[in-house]
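In response to reviewer comment 3 from the previous cycle, which asked for concrete evidence that the modeling workflow produces usable outputs, we include below a single protein chain processed end to end. The sequence was submitted unchanged, and the resulting structure tokens are shown without manual editing.
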Amino acid sequence: SWKHKIFIPAAVVLRLWFEPTTVAKGQAYFREFQPSTLIVWGKNDYIFPKEGAHPYKHDLNSIEFHLLDTGHFALEEDGDKIAYLIICFMAKNTDFLNTHPEYREICNLAA
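The workflow returned the following structure tokens.
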């Protein structure tokens, strides 16, 4: 159902993992509802090191995981790649293709 196909903003997700008081709640939510999740992380980020990205793999079954060769400002460093990943993730996990069928080919998705 759409109720559980929520795209959680990165800042909220980061808070769930890095604030000890909310980690357990975040993990419980992910384990119960299993939202389709896109993780795009800068592997050279010194503020949120790449090791912080991997725990999501333990709680989520439907995860698309990308470590990019960027630092903390991944959008500034590789914004086009991140935009592509977001669009293709949306195409695979929502009804996005109903209104934007041209992305089926762009994202190499079968008809």
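The helical segments are 10-18, 20-33, 56-59, 74-93, 96-99, 103-106. We consider this sufficient to address the reviewer's concern, and the full set will be provided in the supplementary archive.
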